[in-house]
Specification:
Elements lengths: L24 E9 L4 E8 L3 E2 L11 E13 L4 E4 L3 E4 L8 E3 L3 E8 L4
């Protein structure tokens, strides 16, 4: 199985709160392969979102993030990342926690793979 073949279209999937996400975080899944865990989603954070309670994140899959609008502040690094910036994280890479004073919308692509 793989992600579906999709030509240009306006995504109409509903926005939902991911399991375990901090309040104020929603995602719209654009494409996914439930067999492998590969997925592409738009993720938006409302202004004032704070993931401090979740602490530093690590996961067993690759993650690519492109910030489309707004900004994220990494509390561990003490750095703010803004629209147009990109990250590519291998499995196990620590990141976050984050805050977003103004809110942020990002394209997030995750896929399994060896680190």
């Amino acid at each position: 199985m793989s992600k579906p073949e999709l030509e240009f279209h306006r995504p109409d999937g509903r926005w939902s709160t991911p399991v375990g996400a901090a309040p104020g975080i929603q995602e719209q899944v654009l494409a996914e392969d439930s067999a492998t865990g590969a997925r592409t989603a738009l993720v938006r954070w409302e202004p004032g979102t704070d993931t401090s309670v979740q602490g530093v994140s690590q996961h067993a899959f690759w993650e690519e993030v492109h910030l489309l609008e707004g900004a994220l502040h990494d509390l561990t690094l003490g750095a703010t990342f803004t629209a147009g910036m990109y990250a590519c994280r291998p499995p196990g890479m620590p990141h976050g926690p984050w805050t977003s004073a103004e809110g942020v919308t990002m394209l997030v692509v995750t896929y399994p793979g060896a680190g």
